[in-house]
Amino acid sequence: MSGYEYTVSRVVDAPVEQVWRMWTEAEHYAGVFQTTPGAAEIDVRPGGAWKITMSGGTPMTGAYVEVIPNKRLVTTMDGAGPHPSPMAMDLADEGGRTRITFSQTCTTREEHAQSKEGSEILLQWCADYATKM
User: Fold this and answer.
1) 57 or 49, higher pLDDT
2) Which of 11, 33, 55 is closest to 129 using CA atoms?
3) Closest among 110, 49, 50 to 81, alpha carbons compared
């Protein structure tokens, strides 16, 4: 193994197409991240950029690496070290509900701990937001 891997997943009470919209439409992306409308700028295509300004005013930015509609998004986040580790989000239909799985191989233990914790929080935020759409 070359790195520190993690995989976390959760089933949310929403169809795959709705979950995909949560991650690919700026209005809903901002909702997932529990910030204000207009706080997200996304260009969902390989090489496209994403930016979200968190409620405290802190911006997070990155890029899309892989986009397979209703199936998979792979992104990177700027500022996560000199060589950011891509994070994958995979979606799977579970009878009208959606299993969201985040996976990543990090280069350091610190990045692993922070990324895994952040992914677990995002899964909770996704589940919460899915009930509001």
Assistant:
1) 49
2) 33
3) 110
Partner residues linked to 90 by β-bridges: 72, 101
- The alpha carbon dihedral of 121, 82, 42, 40 has a sign of positive
Q: Do residues 14 and 21 touch, judged by C-beta distance below 8 A? A: no
List pLDDT tens digits, range 2-22: 688 999 999 999 999 999 999
DSSP string, 9-51: EEEESS-HHHHHHHHHSHHHHHHHTT--TT-EEE--STT-EEE
What are the φ/ψ torsions at residue 35 (nearest 5 degrees)? -125, -175
Q: Which domain holds residue 123?
A: 4-130
Which residue shows structure tokens 């000199």? 82
Give the count of domains, the chain.
1
SS3 77: strand
Q: Output the CA torsion 98→8→71→11 (10° steps).
A: 0
Report residue 35 as tokens: 């910030």
